[in-house]
Write a structure and sequence with these properties.
Layout (H helix, E strand, L loop, with lengths): L5 E6 L2 E6 L2 H8 L9 H13 L6 E6 L3 E5 L9 H6 L7 H18 L4 E5 L1 E4 L1 H8 L2 E5 L3 E3 L8 E2 L5 E2 L11 H4 L6 H9 L4 E2 H6 L5 E3 L1 H16 L3 H11 L1 H27 L8
Parallel strand pairs: 2-3, 3-5, 4-6, 5-7, 6-8, 7-12
Antiparallel strand pairs: 1-2, 8-11, 9-10
Helix pairs in contact: 2-4, 4-11
Length: about 280
């Protein structure tokens, strides 16, 4: 069995999706014959499982370790050739698996009939922030930061002061562009994406992009109150309400997601063909 990027738990009527540490999972995958199951694939399977489970009313997504909701590897990780090769479509099937799964993930987050809550117990950097914007509500630790690393070229810094992300600039294709333009002004969106800004979650709360930014010891109290109120409402009413709320979001997703994903893959291919992913040079 490949090393998994996510774990799932059922806690009464709440389905929990727990995100494992990205770098640890990828590195463990190299020691296993079946390798690593891309997080996007595991996440997609977990959401589909909970979607059709009539006993699950609410879905929570969180990080396994406090401090990291989901963040890409540290910058030096990508200087190792085998890790660079994993992101090179010319050498590895990883991108050919993860990119279609990312598009499907974006779609299921937009269409799934059940409330999906992000329990953001740490930094959301890279795919973690794209996933964040697809959730219906976000309850966040107020010490966390959020960044999209795609254009960062390795200069994105997490809340611990460590650089994160690969050194190549590529188009953001993971799903953030399907969701974020609905909520962020064009000028702020371009600053965030063009420069891979690292913004504290408190700033995002002020921008009304995060529902709650609270100390870690208050995170579960706020989450429990939301879940209790959701479970007190009819499931079919919440499903219909979500569908109405997401109409504009679905329109945005249909307009841009395929193009963003295609450009991202094209950028990775270009870097591979032109030798920029050869870390021995």
């Amino acid at each position: 069995m490949p090393v998994k990027g996510v774990e799932v738990e059922r806690r009464g009527e709440v389905g929990w999706i727990i995100l494992n540490d990205y770098q640890e999972t990828v590195e463990a995958g190299f020691a296993e014959p079946e390798g690593y199951e891309p997080l996007q694939v595991g996440l997609l399977n977990a959401l589909e499982e909970f979607r059709w489970d009539s006993g699950i009313r609410v879905i929570v997504i969180t990080g396994k370790n406090d401090g990291a909701f989901y963040r890409v590897s540290r910058r030096p990780h990508y200087d190792v050739q085998k890790h660079a090769d994993r992101l090179n479509p010319m050498h590895s099937p990883y991108m050919r698996q993860s990119m279609p799964a990312s598009r499907s993930m974006t779609e299921i987050l937009a269409f799934i009939e059940k409330p999906v809550i992000a329990r953001m117990n740490g930094d959301a950097i890279g795919y973690g922030q794209a996933l964040l914007w697809g959730c219906d509500m976000i309850v966040a630790w107020d010490g966390a930061v959020v960044a999209d690393v795609h254009t960062g070229q390795g200069d994105v810094v997490d809340s611990d002061g460590e650089a994160r992300g690969f050194p190549w600039a590529v188009t953001p294709g993971d799903g953030a562009m399907a969701f974020l333009p609905v909520s962020m002004t064009a000028a702020k969106l371009k600053e965030f994406m063009f420069l891979s800004r690292t913004w504290p979650v408190t700033k995002l709360a002020e921008m009304n992009l995060v529902n709650y930014a609270v100390p870690m010891d208050q995170l579960d109290g706020v989450l429990d109150e939301i879940i209790e109120k959701l479970l007190a409402r009819p499931a079919h009413v919440l499903a219909h309400t979500k569908r109405v709320c997401n109409k504009r979001l679905v329109e945005q997703m249909n307009n841009v997601q395929d193009l963003a994903s295609a450009y991202e893959m094209l950028n990775f291919v270009s870097h591979g063909v032109e030798g920029r992913m050869d870390m021995t040079k």
